[in-house]
Amino acid sequence: MQRLAFTMQLHPGQAQEYKRRHDALWPDLLQLLKDTGIEDYSIFLDEKTHTLFGVLKVRDAANLVPLPDQPVMRRWWQHMKDIMDTNPDGSPVQVSLTEVFHLD
């Protein structure tokens, strides 16, 4: 199992909307994430900087490569792009983080 972490940037004043949308995560998107091997996925918010911190476990990170080509993923990006920083293709701007410590 691999652990991955990343940050994203939420637009100011959008924390409640971000949570509301994730509380109503689409079943087909949830199934895609599970089918990809993603487990134990959490997103945290730093309310002062509007930085989102995501951390997940995945059986094989290579399984994540095709996610951007999945129609439900692209629809989700379109659904979210009005409340967070995004790339020209609609995907969220993500900064991968390097693990420097882990206590198991």
Percent helix among the residues? 25-40%
The major pleated sheet works out as:
4 strands, antiparallel
N→C terminal distance: 13 Å
Proper CATH architecture: 2-Layer Sandwich
> What's the structural domain tally?
1
CATH topology: Alpha-Beta Plaits
Order of helices and strands: EHHEEHE
Shape call: globular
Please give the number of β-strands: 4
Structural class: alpha+beta
**Rg calc:** 14 Å
- Which regions are unreliable across 5 or more consecutive residues at pLDDT < 50? none
**Strand order of the main beta sheet, please?**
2-3-1-4
Helical stretch tally = 3
Beta-strand percentage?
A: 25-35%
Averaged pLDDT = 97
Please give the CATH class: Alpha Beta
Enzyme class: isomerase
Protein name: L-rhamnose mutarotase
Pfam family, one: rhaM
GO molecular function: L-rhamnose mutarotase activity
Short descriptors:
104 residues, alpha+beta, Alpha-Beta Plaits, 4-stranded antiparallel beta sheet, EC 5.1.3.32, Dimeric_a/b-barrel
Notes on the structure:
- Its EC number is 5.1.3.32.
- GO terms for molecular function: L-rhamnose mutarotase activity.
- It comes from Chryseolinea lacunae.
- InterPro entries: Dimeric_a/b-barrel, L-rhamnose_mutarotase, Rham/fucose_mutarotase.
- Keywords: Carbohydrate metabolism, Cytoplasm, Isomerase, Rhamnose metabolism.
- It contains three helices and four strands, in the order βααββαβ.
- The longest helix is centred in the C-terminal third of the chain and has 10 residues.
- It has a four-stranded antiparallel β-sheet.
- The protein has one domain: 2-Layer Sandwich (Alpha-Beta Plaits), CATH 3.30.70.
- With 104 residues, the chain is of the alpha+beta class.
- The protein is globular, with a radius of gyration of 14 Å.
